[in-house]
Write a structure and sequence with these properties.
Alpha-Beta Plaits; 2 domains; 6-stranded mixed beta sheet; transmembrane helix; Diguanylate_Cyclase; membrane
Length: 409
């Protein structure tokens, strides 16, 4: 990475410009629809409640101005109120929210069509309030109840077309200029649609910036995981490296001491070292030594099963196996079986003074002894390993809980 790249700021998503026609790339567009519905669902109950309030207020005002108008209008008002109430009830259930926009459109069409129908069928002098249903429905779609811009655009156009058609059916029947009514509706439509366009655009921009940030967070997280893995894994054997081992062991010990809910009951540490490895390198060469290390490491790696247990490369040809929760006896069985399996690999070692094949010496220590921390536990296992070496190699020695080293066999 160059110095220049190091200083490139992460994109925030705010610098991404949206095309005027509001479309996002296909996969994002699908996510955005869900996001749009969820955000519209939050405001819709309040919007519907407001619509209900407006209708009740309109009925109240009508009753004060002219009882004649109310005697015609109450049916359509009640119908609208029932639909609005029905929508409110449906929206309480999350699964019905998927139908939010469809329900909104049906509601708006119902209001507009009943208004237009009544407008052309009742007394001309009373028809005016009913034609106002159409602009009200358009306003409702566009401002109160959020539907996607293109849906609002299409449905508003259809509603206005219906209105013009109704007015054309009975020319000269109305006490006012139909063109004025259409123009008023068009003005409502344009205002509403403009608001809807701005709202949707802002929402898209916000969604996009959130999405981009989210993606970057994910990428950073994955990169961190890779780096963390690279920093704590030994590239040659695949074991955890010394640094990783120390941090994991300290963590386990911390849990043990603090008695956290997921703390292990005890920690057993198995330290082993390949016998006469210097001679192996001298006899077969360093690359062959590397191959030997890989084969030997594969034995404990294949034996460890629990997620909390792990194999680490402690030094050049020294390895540590940490077992959490195993009993001391089980750990000894593990150690002995591992020693035996390495011997069974049958890797020729003519430089060894104790065998024809590669062997290991093993030291075992357990936290049930007086070890206060991971470092002390390692020291105890090392003392046991030293004794295993001193007692002829290719064997297991343990540091007993009383602090005495015992060599097996
Ligand atoms: N091939 C190879 N050799 C390594 C690596 N790391 C350490 N060694 C070698 O491992 C050898 C360790 O030698 P010593 O510490 O004397 O141990 P030893 O010969 O096994 O003797 P004992 O442990 O007493 O049996 C050294 O010769 C190191 O060069 C490695 O990554 N690859």
């Amino acid at each position: 990475m160059t110095a220049n790249q190091n200083h490139t700021p992460l994109p925030t998503g705010n610098d991404i410009t949206l095309p005027w026609h509001l479309r996002l790339p296909k996969p994002l567009e699908k996510d955005f629809r869900l996001y749009f519905r969820a955000s519209a669902a939050k405001s819709t109950p309040w919007a519907l409640a407001l619509v209900a309030f407006l209708i009740v207020s309109a009925m109240f005002i009508e009753s004060r101005i002219s009882v004649d108008v109310l005697s015609f209008s109450w049916r359509s008002r009640l119908f609208t109120l029932m639909l609005t109430g029905g929508c409110l009830v449906l929206l309480r259930k999350p699964q019905w929210r998927n139908w939010l926009h469809e329900a909104t459109l049906v509601l708006a069409f119902a209001i507009s069509l009943t208004g237009n129908y009544l407008g052309v069928t009742i007394e001309p002098s009373l028809s005016y309030p009913f034609f106002l249903h159409t602009p009200l429905a358009i306003l409702m779609i566009c401002i109160l109840i959020r539907v996607p811009f293109y849906v609002a655009l299409g449905s508003s156009a259809i509603m206005i077309a219906c209105m013009i058609f109704s007015l054309q059916l009975n020319p000269g029947r109305y006490p006012f200029e139909p063109t004025t009514l259409v123009l008023v509706s068009l003005a409502f439509t344009c205002t509403g649609l403009f608001g809807q366009y701005v709202y949707e655009r802002l929402l898209r921009q916000y969604f996009l910036s959130e999405h981009v940030l989210f993606q970057h967070r994910n990428e950073l997280h994955s990169a961190n995981l890779v780096l963390e893995n690279q920093a704590t894994v030994d590239g040659m054997t695949g074991c955890i490296n010394r640094r990783g081992m120390e941090s994991r062991l300290n963590h386990l010990y911390h849990q043990l001491k603090q008695k956290t809910p997921d703390a292990p009951e005890r920690i057993t540490l198995i330290l082993f070292d390949i016998d006469f490895f210097k001679q192996y390198n001298d006899t077969y060469g360093h690359p062959a030594g590397d191959e030997c290390l890989k084969k030997v490491a594969s034995v404990p790696l294949g034996m460890v099963q629990s997620d909390t247990d792990f194999v680490a490369r402690y030094g050049g040809e020294e390895f540590v196996i940490t077992l959490a929760d195993s009993s001391f006896n089980d750990a000894l069985v593990f150690a002995e079986r591992m020693r035996n399996r390495v011997e069974q690999l049958g890797i020729p070692h003519s430089g060894s003074r104790i065998s024809q094949v590669v062997t290991i010496s093993v030291g075992v220590a357990c936290s049930d002894s007086n070890a206060e921390n991971g470092g002390q536990l390692l020291k105890m296992a090392d003392e046991a390993l030293y004794q295993a070496k001193g007692s002829g190699r290719n064997r297991v020695a343990l540091m007993s809980n009383q602090g005495v080293v015992e060599v097996l066999n």
